[in-house]
Design goal:
75% of the residues lie in helices and 0% in strands. By secondary structure, the protein is mostly helical. It is globular and about 45 Å long.
Length: 161
Amino acid sequence: MAAQGHADRPIDRWFDSYSGDHRNHTNQAIHVLAVPAIAWSVIALLWCIPAPGTLFQPGIWAALPMFAAWLFYQRSSRALGVGMLLVFVAFSALTWWLFAELGRGGLLKLAIPVFVVAWIAQFVGHKLEGRKPSFLTDLVYLLIGPAWVLAKLYRRLGLRW
């Protein structure tokens, strides 16, 4: 399923391979919900790591991997880079607000079950699919999943990526 005549791009090859492990409609639906939930919960869990001193704000340990992931997405596709930047900003704003409202302990009590339930859902989806999760063959697929979900949204909206 290479996008708009760019089959030579690495991201298209990643998506083609990832799509091959996600053909079952139920598994795809699970991924559309669970992948963003996992992404947010990882951000929230990293947000809960105490920041050293007063120079760093809560969330610094989430910001650094988000920036690194954004660089990967931006290099893969500018349109996906912009979209993932918006996702990261939205997830950061949500997490910042939840951290302020719930505190570190409350955010942990929310993020941990979201992480666990979303991963269980992912494995249920793959059991239905009859294929192992892509990340078991290459950890890069942990980055591909969120971009794949975003690309599905782009296609629905008629946007190029």
